[in-house]
Specification:
The protein is built from one helix and no strands. The chain has one helix at residues 24-46. Keywords: Membrane, Transmembrane, Transmembrane helix.
């Protein structure tokens, strides 16, 4: 049986981290953005810019 051709995603020059994995930096960034948006909505609601009294 002849040798199968090697694929580009294998070998010594390819990093071993999975493509679908989410890095810790990205998780922290998403968490910071979510918290910032929640704080922004809370501040806008408390100051009356958005909410029941805005119309």
């Amino acid at each position: 049986m002849p040798d199968l051709p090697s694929h580009q995603d294998t070998g010594s020059g390819v990093s071993q981290t999975p493509i679908a994995g989410v890095s810790r930096r990205r998780k922290v960034l998403v968490a910071v953005v979510v918290v910032a948006l929640v704080v922004l909505v809370a501040v806008l609601h408390l100051t009356g810019v958005i909410g029941g009294e805005s119309h």
